[in-house]
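Hi V.,

Quick status before I head out on leave. The structure for the redesign project is tokenized and pasted below; the design run finished overnight.
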């Protein structure tokens, strides 16, 4: 109930471009119209279109994490 009714927009905005949202067009929990609303509410967030399957395909998630780390300029020693 808390997850469904919680309002985390303020926290999401505070993250700015550190918030990365992985999206694929067949996600029943986050359909395209909801993703568009999130884009409006959190304009600095980074949206990454990915293949379907971030849960069943950990390589997709790992690739997105590598991209986020590289974008942040974090080195292996900085992790």
């Amino acid at each position: 109930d808390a997850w469904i009714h919680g309002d985390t927009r303020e926290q999401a905005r505070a993250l700015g471009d550190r918030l990365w949202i992985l999206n694929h067009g067949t996600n029943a929990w986050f359909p395209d119209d909801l993703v568009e609303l999130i884009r409006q509410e959190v304009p600095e967030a980074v949206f990454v279109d990915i293949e379907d399957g971030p849960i069943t395909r950990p390589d997709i998630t790992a690739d997105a994490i590598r991209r986020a780390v590289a974008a942040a300029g974090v080195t292996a020693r900085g992790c």
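Above is the designed sequence. Strands lie at 20-23, 46-49.

G. will cover questions while I'm gone.

Best,
W.
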